[in-house]
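Dear colleague,

Thank you for sharing your sequence with our group. We've completed the structure prediction you requested, and as agreed, I am returning the results in plain text so they can be pasted directly into your records. Please verify that the sequence below matches your submission; if there's any discrepancy, let me know and we will rerun it promptly.
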Amino acid sequence: MGQYLSALDVFGRFLYETTLGSYIFVPNPTFTANDVPDLTGKVVIVTGGNTGIGKETCKVLLQKNAKVYLAARNEGRANAAIAELLAQTGKEAIWLELDLSFFQSIESAAAEFHSKETELHILFNNAGLLSPPESLTAEGYDMTFGTNVVGQFIHVLSKVETGFLRLQFAGPYYFTELLLPALYKTSTSENKPRVVNLTSQMGLIGASAFGSGLDFSTFKDSPKRRKMSGTALYSQSKLGNVVYAQEFARRYGDKVISISVHPGPILSELPRNDFDPNNPVFRFFFKLVTYPTPMGAITPLYAGTSPEAENLNGEYLTQWHRVGTPRSKDPVLGKELWTWLEEQVAGREYLNKIRAQIASLK
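Please find the predicted structure tokens below.
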């Protein structure tokens, strides 16, 4: 019963934010896809670029002449998205195979990118996941927190109960770390590369729902974690994105701009594992209070491309590129999360090699 009450509490706050917060008090965006500057010569990676907000982001980047690497696991889906984008823009994205389930896949993706490019101007950490609370990785990590926070720092094979898809353990951390040499080589005093981490308003809700916002005892299987709903775990993981992005800015802000963004209440953000998305009443209501996918790309594109965002290192942007005020600007919490993330990848040979390269570039 407690798990369902937790889900209803978080879901109720989500509805309040998406209805009152998103429609009554939020002004229209002043930045649109048309305002993205020409990106000729810019190299960009979009994780999860084969669907949803990620694919829409790729579309605009291609229209603005960027060289786009579409990072995704499934070759068929990636190629289908690339073909669709080619038909729409006349420009072809490049598939970067990235399975956020394996250390080796992340390392292979980073190595492949480094073999083709020396610079990286923008990284959109867009890929994410909302999974049910019984979904764990093979090593016992919470699936949602692993995918949304850790693996853009760490990736482990995940096998879950029958009836659930094979999912990944990942997030913004590891992948970004492995790409730091290219980010550093791109950085100049006038222009710094950017890392844009997609999060959610659910992260703000998570901050109030969980006190400090991050309960480290629930990152792996535990009695407390098993009492939490999928939506509550998702909320916590999205707050983790914000905390991570801010700590990244503290550590690397002299070379790289790090911004976390809430894209707005987009249909793809539905808490699918606590509430049935196929329920006609549910779908009707959410169509009333959510925006179409192209609108979801506005704030990430602003963070990644607009000149104004150069001064927003470490900030959290809520929908339509407004600077938000998350309850997470706690350097102690940021350091604690970073230490935990570091522990998960300690001793990886490829990571040690990358860090040696980074040291030579400082």
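Summary note from our side: The mean pLDDT is 78.

Kind regards,
the structure core
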